[in-house]
Amino acid sequence: MYDIKAVYEPSDIRDAIRLLLEHPAAKIIAGGSDVLIHIREGRMAGCELVSIHGLDELRGVSMDEDGTLRIGSLTSFRHITEDPLIRQHIAVLGEAVDLVGGPQIRAIGTIGGNTCNGVTSADSASTLMAWDARIQIDGPEGRRIIPIQDFYLGPGKVDLRPGELQTAILIPEESYEGYAGHYIKYGMRSAMEIATIGCSVNVRLSEDRSHLRDLRIAFGVAGPVPGRAPLTEQRFRGARLTDSLTDKIGSSVLSDVHPRDSWRAARDFREHICSVLARRAFRAAVCGTAEDGSLARFQNS
User: Fold this and answer.
1) Domain containing 183: what range?
2) Which of these, 187, 194, 215, 295, could form a disulfide with 290 (CB 3.0-4.6 Å)?
3) What is the pLDDT of residue 158?
């Protein structure tokens, strides 16, 4: 049995905001893959819930007139993996969320739930950061849109104010057009595993494929919240593609990451994995920009 005091079901977004204001202690429940576990374990016993599961306006992937990809916060992991727009423009996001849990979790788990729980190990978070995603939030004072980096305030804490809910994740056209990316999740098991480290890398090459026009690297579990590698990105933007570049990037990210010791992995081991994954993800992202195989040397460099 689940110890739940009350469940409120809004008819639309505005009604959800009203219910959250009327019941300030209530928690939002979407797919329920996280919340129901907390209730069963007694950490949220006797709670009130605002269920947004029935708000279909928050589901699906679409493209705005300006080319922005819009992912509704209630869109399931499985939907994202299979969506044609995702596959065409940011396939790496579908690949990343396809590593979450098992098939049952991916069928009910939502992209909004994965980001709003605020955990650094969320498989979608580092990839969304590498795509310069923006978070759309609706609340009693209207709508605001913030960079995903600003959405994470601390471990398990995100920038949602009283009465607010996340309604969409936005990826502007300039953030994905001409880019290729790759995500790698390291865990002790190959399935049903929380990431020990996650690394997502996006690259954009010059027209002659000789230089890096842009580089974006993001990590999960390399700090208290998912985060980018700003020093490394700045250092290597404009760099010439050489066989030694991957090793330089792998060494450089150690100045950007701040993992911790835990029962799951030691800090120095996590640092080593950050370096290895950055090299591997960078190589795969670079090779993904060239369909003719002209950059295949990076696969083994």
Assistant:
1) 179-299
2) 295
3) 96
